[in-house]
Amino acid sequence: MRIPVSHGHLEANLREAESEEIRGAAVICHPHPLHGGTMHTKAVFRTAQALSEAGFHALRFNFRGVGTSTGSFGEGIDEMEDARAALDWLEERFPDAPLLLGGFSFGSRVALRTGVEDPRVRAMFGLGLAVSLFDYDFLDGVDRPVLIVQGENDEFGSGARVAAALEELEGPITLERIAGSGHFFHDHFEELQDVLREYFTSGPGAEPFDPG
């Protein structure tokens, strides 16, 4: 499927909610386009699966220049336009569904920066924050729930390093550290999925999406 955007279109995949109770609709952003990141990256696919099981319509898409998406790499700035276009598409298709936005690695920074600026987004999540490459100071003072999931042995930011960075920030930010996991969550996908499902169904991120 295709999502319209100013430079043409974005290649995308929608996984509709598997739960009887629809909690909302989620956009999931993929890792770095210049290092093989796509919407088919395993952590992105597994995230969509978990959110669908938790009652969210889950939309994955390829950033500009990836797969059959038009355009070219935009240094993480232009990709924010792509994320907004995905939110626009979800809002039009599911007008009553609260919006959730998140991503993995490079995609986490794009998603979180976009979400902070977009009042439509009820909550956010970031997986595998590459704090050795990017700063996340823009989260300081965030007023909506944010879930961060970090592998304890992440090559681009250990659990301890991310914890230290987040301690400096004000706002409802929850950090979950997965023991033994590296950046890509290989061999730890089920733990990642458990964290996502719990946070958005019974944890701090559930309230903005309470179907009751």
Q: DSSP helix count?
A: 5
Radius of gyration, Cα only, in angstroms? 15 Å
Number of β-strand runs = 8
What is the string of helix and strand elements? EEEHEHEHEEHEH
CATH architecture: 3-Layer(aba) Sandwich
* Main sheet specs: 8 strands, mixed
Per DSSP, what share of the residues sits in E-state strands of 2 or more residues?
Answer: 15-25%
Specify the CATH homologous superfamily: Alpha/Beta hydrolase fold, catalytic domain
> Which class best fits the helix and strand makeup?
alpha/beta
| Overall domain count | 1
- Terminal-residue CA separation: 31 Å
Name the overall outline: globular
Mean pLDDT, all residues: 97
Summarize the structure in words.
- This protein has 212 residues and is of the alpha/beta class.
- It has a single domain, classed as 3-Layer(aba) Sandwich (Rossmann fold).
- It contains 5 helices and 8 strands, in the order E-E-E-H-E-H-E-H-E-E-H-E-H.
- The chain has helices spanning 42-53, 78-93, 106-117, 159-167, 189-201; strands at residues 2-5, 8-15, 24-29, 56-61, 99-104, 121-127, 146-151, 173-178.
- Strands 1-2-4-3-5-6-7-8 form an 8-stranded mixed sheet, sandwiched between helices.
- Strand 5, helix 3 (106-117) and strand 6 (121-127) form a beta-alpha-beta unit.
- Helix 1 (42-53) runs parallel beside helix 5 (189-201) and helix 2 crosses helix 3.
- The longest helix is centred in the middle third of the chain and has 16 residues, at 78-93.
- The protein is globular, with a radius of gyration of 15 Å.
- The termini are far apart.
- The model has no long low-confidence stretch (mean pLDDT 97).
